[in-house]
Design goal:
Elements (H helix, E strand, L loop, with lengths): L4 H15 L3 E2 L5 E3 H5 L12 E3 L5 E4 L3 H7 L8 E11 L8 E12 L3 H19 L4 E7 H7 L6 H12 L3 H6 L4 H7 L5 H4 L7 H8 L7 E3 L13 E7 L7 E5 L1 H6 L6 E8 L8
Parallel strand pairs: 1-5, 7-8
Antiparallel strand pairs: 2-4, 3-4, 5-6, 6-11, 7-9, 9-10, 10-11
Helix pairs in contact: 1-4, 4-10
């Protein structure tokens, strides 16, 4: 039987994640709507597809995998490592209707160390290499915590949102017109030599992780346009690109804030998703 590119990629990635000790996690396609209703700040798409079940409960087709996995993790004193191959249901950016989006990825849950975060980034790099299949690829890395700190004095939520929008679009003129901090503007201009740009990261945990991954520096760059959601991510964030696809095929980061919101006060987590549906765009 001839497999589609995304099916071949999913099988290859399953093998990769298993080799690093990650366990396959299977979940239901839907949860009670109330579970997502007060967590919309953590969702990529604020719209949630709902239906009423035979018992009269309002249910939601799953818009996010990470929230569902965290909900069912009980012991965060131990390190839990999962991978998944699932579909989510949401409205993609610039789309006008819900889509079924196939994705695979990993979640590393528990007390985060430099080695743990390095493992997550290394798996992101290896995932890109596998699905690129000889094409060029790049992983953009940044630190959302640095941006949060630089925006602490900006009480106007609209202005913060506009600054983040300019940062995501590498709109330097827009950042200057909004009186963004000079440091933030310098970070927005990064994107060249990683060994030079790393000096702008002020000794953050991200620096230690990147120094741990020197063998991958030729396929990485520091690019703060990867920072878009300060509610979801609080530390290292990253996006992966493959030649021939005009948008990121992989995205992830550290999301301790979500863990705290879900009641896990002293635990951290990091992970990423690979958007396999984009594979069809590779000619």
């Amino acid at each position: 039987m001839l497999l589609l590119p995304e099916e071949k990629a999913a099988l290859s990635l399953r093998e990769l994640y298993s080799s690093f000790g990650y366990k396959f996690y299977r979940m239901s396609r839907f949860e009670e709507y109330d579970f997502y209703a007060d967590k919309k700040d953590f969702l990529i798409s604020k719209s949630v597809l709902t239906f009423t079940d035979i018992n009269g409960r309002l249910m939601a087709l799953r818009p996010d995998v990470t929230l569902s996995i965290i909900r069912h993790v009980k012991d965060t004193d131990l390190i839990s490592k999962f991978f998944y191959d699932e579909k989510v249901y949401r409205v993609p950016k610039n789309a006008k209707s819900f889509r079924e989006i196939p994705q695979t990825g990993i979640e590393y849950i528990g007390k985060l160390s430099v080695d743990g975060l390095s493992e997550v980034i290394e798996l992101a790099m290896l995932s890109l290499k596998k699905i690129a299949d000889g094409r060029k690829y790049i992983l953009d890395v940044a630190d959302a915590g640095m941006i949060s700190k630089l925006l602490e004095d900006f009480r106007d939520s609209h202005k913060r949102s506009e600054i983040l929008k300019c940062l995501s679009g590498k709109n330097i003129h827009g950042l200057k017109s909004l009186n963004a901090p000079e440091k933030l503007i310098r970070l927005a201009e990064l994107g060249g030599n990683i060994d030079k740009d790393i000096n702008e990261l002020d000794g953050s945990l991200t620096v230690s992780v990147l120094k741990n991954l020197k063998n991958y520096h030729n396929e990485m760059r520091i690019d703060f346009s990867a920072v878009s959601n300060l509610n979801y991510y609080n530390g290292i964030v990253f996006r992966g690109f493959i030649q021939g696809i005009p948008e990121s095929i992989l995205s992830g980061g550290q999301y301790d804030n979500m863990m705290s919101m879900m009641g896990h006060k002293n635990a951290g987590a990091a992970g990423f998703a690979v958007y396999l549906g984009l594979m069809e765009r590779i000619s």
